[in-house]
Specification:
mainly alpha; 6 helices; globular
């Protein structure tokens, strides 16, 4: 569960980076970015594989460059489905997912070695205090 939450937060932060870099990408608030991250994950898990399979011949002819178009379509579709998140312009549709991917990769590698702080033991406060002194 924490993996899903962390991935969603990292994707939302990356979406805010894309929003900052591209004037044609607009995200109204951080909760909108979280919803957009969830919708983008659902699109990438369900619709993108179908699009990739259908575009396999043209992807083969373009030596894989058509994958940028497929990613852009999925990014644009998330912008259509989520209120408060819009993607306008071909540059944002093609380059937005590239920046999103770079930001997500960087943030995931940053948080990968980190652990969440443990919560105090509320059933036995003395034991919790003892573990904090070690």
């Amino acid at each position: 569960m924490t993996g899903f939450l962390l991935t969603t937060l990292v994707t939302a932060l990356s979406l805010l980076i894309v929003d900052t870099l591209f004037t044609s990408v607009s995200i109204s608030s951080f909760p909108t970015a979280i919803v957009a991250a969830i919708v983008l994950g659902l699109i990438n898990g369900s619709i993108r594989p179908v699009l990739s399979l259908l575009s396999l011949p043209i992807n083969f002819l373009t030596l894989g460059l058509f994958s940028f178009v497929v990613n852009g379509i999925c990014f644009w579709l998330a912008g259509v489905l989520v209120p408060g998140f819009s993607v306008d312009g071909i540059a944002a549709i093609i380059l937005g997912p590239v920046v999103l991917s770079l930001g997500t990769t960087f943030l995931n590698s940053y948080f990968e070695g980190r652990t969440l702080p443990s919560l105090p033991n509320l059933t036995n406060p003395e034991k919790s205090l003892e573990s904090g002194r070690e």
